[in-house]
Amino acid sequence: MKKLFIILSSLFFLNACNDEEKDVEETVRSSENIEEQPPKSENPPKENDAAQPSNSNSEEEENHNDEASAVEFNRYFKPADSTAYFIGDGNEYASYSEKTKWLSEDYIATIIDNGGAVIMKVYRIEDHQIVLIVDELVETDPDHLVYPELEALRELPALEIFLAGPLKVGTSFDQRWTIVETDFTLVTPYQTFKNVIVLEETGEGFTNKKYFVENYGVVKTVSIMSAELTEEVTVTSTLEEIH
């Protein structure tokens, strides 16, 4: 009996030792895990802070649209029922007359007669730009011309962009034109204009320019054509008078 008690006491002692060793191991592991965890930030980020995208591009685009919307595009046409005369150089058809007819606040027509053909152009003023929607030959006498109805004009798509904002150097539109100057001084037979906006289009063998003035629209155009085997040809049309 005494032997049995000794054996049981030994087993109980061994189990107690094993339990203490397990407790020690678990305590050590826990402390190691605590040391391995990175320290918590005193100011943890708010939810979605790290996932927020940059708004710089959208803000720039919004500012760009705001500047373009601020432009009074109807100020870049000639007065209603006026007739302007342009003197040309470099081509027999560079001289022409241009009659301006306001069909509404947003639709303006011009009739161009260069002695060889009569062309009607109609423009629509939109939020950020002026677009050309009609560009066709006219067979009838310009004095007896019947202009398109506004309802029909509203349904027409844009053929090209005539002018777009913001009106500052570097603005490009229609994959063609770029504003290269905004404070140019231009001398014409009609008068000297200041703060002239200069648009430029360049391509292989040619350069075109348009000169815009507030309350007068286009007052000069320049076309420069060059080729390797021919001399450079420059054609200009400049405002001479208006009434």
Q: Explain this structure to me?
A:
The chain is α+β, with helices and mostly antiparallel strands. It has one domain: YmcC-like fold. The chain is 22% helix and 41% strand. The chain has three helices and twelve strands. The protein has a twelve-stranded antiparallel β-sheet with strand order 6-5-4-3-2-1-12-11-10-9-8-7. The longest helix is centred in the first third of the chain and has 35 residues. The radius of gyration is 39 Å and the shape is globular. The N terminus is likely disordered.
Query: What topology, given as strand order, has the largest sheet?
Result: 6-5-4-3-2-1-12-11-10-9-8-7
CATH architecture: Beta Barrel
The shape is globular
Number of helices: 3
Tally of distinct domains: 1
Overall pLDDT level: 81
The rounded Rg comes to 39 Å
| Poorly predicted spans | 1-51
**Annotation, overall tally of beta strands:** 12
Main β sheet profile: 12 strands, antiparallel
Helix/strand order:
HHEEEEEHEEEEEEE
Quote the beta fraction: 35-45%
**Which class in CATH terms?**
Mainly Beta
SSE-based structural type = alpha+beta
Q: Helix fraction?
A: 10-25%
CATH topology: YmcC-like fold
Distance N to C terminus = 137 Å
